């Protein structure tokens, strides 16, 4: 059994990025926040699938070259090996839930010069 309050963790980049409430043993669970104009490096996972559920605001997520405009209440499932890139071109912060499973200590392959 495991209980934690979001206030007990911090976002990776101050007021943005992932805030992991759980990492392993079988999945990761994070609250993710992007301020207006922010993005996250394009990447894929060899083993883990990733899900995003939009709590507040809106975001654009590119999956294998196709751009999706997601807003509050939307859910997206990303399969292993599907390249994804998140960016917030909107004027408000976006807050979303991210899950990754099955848990892997290291499974992220970043693509520095990704274009779509």
From TrEMBL:
Question: InterPro entries from the xrefs?
Answer: Cupin_2 (IPR013096), Flavonoid_dioxygenase-like (IPR052538), RmlC-like_jellyroll (IPR014710), RmlC_Cupin_sf (IPR011051)
Sequence ranges assigned to domain Cupin type-2 in this UniProt record: 31-97
Record key words, sorted: Isomerase
Annotated GO MF terms: isomerase activity
Superkingdom per UniProt: Bacteria
Claim: Isomerase is one of the keywords in the record: yes
**Gene3D superfamilies xref list:** Jelly Rolls
Q: What is this protein called?
A: Mannose-6-phosphate isomerase-like protein (Cupin superfamily)
């Amino acid at each position: 059994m495991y209980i934690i309050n979001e206030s007990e963790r911090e976002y990776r980049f101050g007021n943005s990025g992932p805030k992991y409430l759980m990492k392993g043993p079988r999945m990761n669970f994070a609250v993710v926040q992007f301020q207006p104009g922010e993005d996250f490096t394009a990447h894929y996972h060899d083993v883990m699938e990733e899900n995003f559920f939009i709590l507040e605001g809106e975001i654009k997520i590119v999956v294998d070259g196709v751009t999706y405009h997601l807003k509050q209440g939307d859910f997206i499932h990303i399969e292993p090996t599907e390249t994804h890139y998140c960016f917030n071109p909107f004027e408000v912060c976006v807050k979303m839930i991210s899950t990754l499973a099955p848990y892997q200590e290291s499974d992220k392959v970043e693509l520095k010069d990704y274009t779509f």
